[in-house]
Write a structure and sequence with these properties.
elongated; single chain; 14-stranded parallel barrel; 15-stranded mixed beta sheet; mainly beta
Length: 455
């Protein structure tokens, strides 16, 4: 799919506003309605019934498609059985496509491979560039003190399937060279899909937990990751369609996608699943967009709770951010539905990022914060809702606790602040739209962290 370019359009909007568009606070009766988001585990299902350029459907459609290895594409009956034992492995009679030597199990052909037992060493996939490889972990324990536990060096699409009812674990080296090609407990140069109803414990001592240089998709599984840096990282995209994820990212982000060279990639999509994040940086960080339509997400982050460099679009799910600098942050933030409970030291929800430093902090630079549904609770140290551009609230129920000191407020926009149909409680009292801070003197970028994303 071709990506609609968001940033230049926003800059054009900012220029037109600076050319003479006055700011105002408006209030009107009535409320917009939106259908609930459709959640579920299939990437083929519709994500939402919401409309508008910031809706989950539209934002996802502007991004490249992601690749998934579904479980109906292969059969466990075809698996080559590999019994791991110490620094070696026993292969089924007549097995092809796999070898074991010197603590390394190497897979060189497309196919399905079942790994069981314990290995002191690593599993390497060095298959043809067009190969699909499925690794079934069936009570497998892989510990590699010299590098990744599983290292996919070449293949097209790879799946790691957790056999039903089994417990599996992987652990890697304590450190990596700065120029290491693979630097995660599970590292894939290919697309990577994780599925199955088993459990996987990942101990990433040296850097990231599970990474893919293409698409990383989680369909199911009980997955616990403790990582020195990022817990899950999909460079082109990171998609969660199900599963139970417990992620501890000591020095980095819980969920991360960071493709910087292609504007249609670097996004995060969450449609279902239970995700618990403790992060030393951001809870969820998309280089382009972060799209959430379902699931139960809890996050405690030293940085931001949910972040994207362009758009955060939320169409459903339950999101609890118990600790953060800023709860939700992007250039454009749109909430259509869902239950959100946000605690932030700075701003609760912040639309920022177009001010490059050349504009006054109180200038409308074109960002958009739009809420058309959902139940939202915000506990913020500075602004509850903050936008360096406009704020539009047309429906939903909001309970905001924030600073209210002339510079910071429950709703604080540099541009127009429009409240047309929501129920808002601000610092314990019914909210009157005339209380909104808008335009010059409105507090602009909020607290100390209220500048551009990442600052």
């Amino acid at each position: 799919m071709k990506r609609r370019i968001i940033l230049p359009a926003a800059l054009v909007l900012a220029a037109s506003l600076l050319a003479g568009c006055s700011t105002a606070v408006t209030e009107a009766s009535g409320a917009s309605t939106a259908k609930a988001a459709t959640t579920g585990g299939s990437s083929a299902e519709a994500l939402s019934a919401f409309t508008g350029d910031l809706s989950p459907d539209e934002v996802l459609a502007a991004n490249a498609e992601y690749t998934t290895v579904n479980t109906d594409e292969w059969s466990a009956d075809d698996a080559v059985r590999v019994k791991l034992s110490g620094d070696s492995a026993t292969l089924a009679s007549g097995a092809s496509g796999v070898t074991a030597a010197d603590g390394t199990v190497t897979i060189t052909e497309a196919g399905v491979y079942e790994l069981s037992g314990s290995l002191t060493g690593g599993v390497v996939v060095a298959a043809p560039e067009d190969a699909q490889v499925v690794l079934i972990l069936n009570a497998a324990e892989i510990t590699n003190s010299a590098g990744p536990a599983i290292d996919v060096q070449t293949a097209d699409d790879v799946a790691i399937h957790l056999a039903d009812g089994t417990k599996n674990s992987v652990s890697d080296a304590s450190s990596y060279a700065d120029d290491a090609e693979a630097n995660a407990a599970i590292s894939a140069s290919s697309d990577l899909t994780i599925s199955g109803e088993g459990a996987l414990t990942v101990t990433a001592n040296g850097n990231d937990g599970i990474t893919s240089k293409d698409d990383l998709v989680v369909l199911s599984g009980d997955i616990a990751v403790t990582a020195a840096d990022d817990a899950l990282r999909g460079k082109d995209s990171l998609v969660v369609e199900g599963g139970a994820l417990r992620l501890t990212a000591t020095g980095g982000d819980g969920l991360k996608s960071d493709q910087e060279d292609d504007g249609t990639k670097g996004y995060i999509l969450i449609t279902d699943g239970a995700i618990d994040i403790t992060a030393g940086d951001d809870g969820i960080q998309g280089q382009t967009d972060t799209i959430i339509t379902g699931g139960e997400i809890t996050a405690a982050a030293t940085g931001d709770g949910v972040k994207a460099e362009q758009i955060v679009s939320i169409g459903g799910g339950t999101i609890t951010i118990s600790e953060s600098d800023e709860g939700i942050e992007a250039i454009n933030v749109a909430i259509f539905d869902g239950t959100l409970d946000i605690t932030a030291a700075d701003d609760g929800i912040n639309a920022a990022g177009l001010n490059t430093g050349g504009e006054d902090r109180e200038t409308d630079t074109g960002e958009r914060l739009e809420i058309s549904g959902g139940t939202i609770t915000v506990h913020a140290g500075f602004d509850g809702l903050d936008s360096n551009g406009t704020i539009t609230v047309s429906s939903g129920t909001l309970d905001i606790t924030s600073a209210d000191n002339g510079g910071d407020a429950p709703l604080d926009g540099n541009g127009e602040v429009s409240v047309t149909g929501a129920t808002i409680t601000a610092n314990g009292s019914p909210y009157d739209a005339s209380q909104a801070n808008a335009g010059p003197g409105g507090g602009g970028m909020g607290g100390p962290g209220g500048g551009a994303p990442g600052q």
